[in-house]
Amino acid sequence: xxxxxxxxxxxxxxxxxxxxxxxxxxxxxxxxxxxxxxxxxxxxxxxxxxxxxxxxxxxxxxxxxxxxxxxxxxxxxxxxxxxxxxxxxxxxxxxxxxxxxxxxxxxxxxxxxxxxxxxxxxxxxxxxxxxxxxxxxxxxxxxxxxxxxxxxxxxxxxxxxxxxxxxxxxxxxxxxxxxxxxxxxxxxxxxxxxxxxxxxxxxxxxxxxxxx
Length: 212
What we know:
Blueprint: E1 2-6, E2 15-19, E3 27-33, H1 55-58, E4 66-70, H2 82-95, E5 98-108, H3 110-121, E6 128-132, E7 148-153, H4 162-173, E8 178-183, H5 191-194, H6 197-204
Helix pairs in contact: 2-3
């Protein structure tokens, strides 16, 4: 897939885009949120946003989707920029030839928190989400009506797995469509096992309004 770096001032965040050679109409859109160590202000630091996550897959072959990886400024974190993220996603939907019924959100660590919080703030935007070693507000989990696949390392010393446990347990009590991979013996770097072609294709298989 093509890798394009965007630093235009008219966007909420600088970002890296992966897209096919030819952008057909109504492509699915995946937004991936990085962790705390990859924050920056664009420029050469923009390379950090796709160190982890789906980039190793997207570099190998074309997929029928657009993947966007924004960069969070150094002095803040994704959960504090939810309003900006919502505007950013809406801007992408307007400007890119994407199917608004097939927009997906994922992220790891700080980006895992950003995924939960952004999806709770604007659940109508997303067909499915995949938060990785993050956490959210379990008391508000009922707003999440989309399919969810969450990941957490059971031995994570950086983000307590109980953060994901609480979200998943609440969702399951509400009868939500949630899959949970709680990886035994894995520490914080659970993203290394999470971001596979299986997860990518799982996301792309989901569409708003469809049953399981």
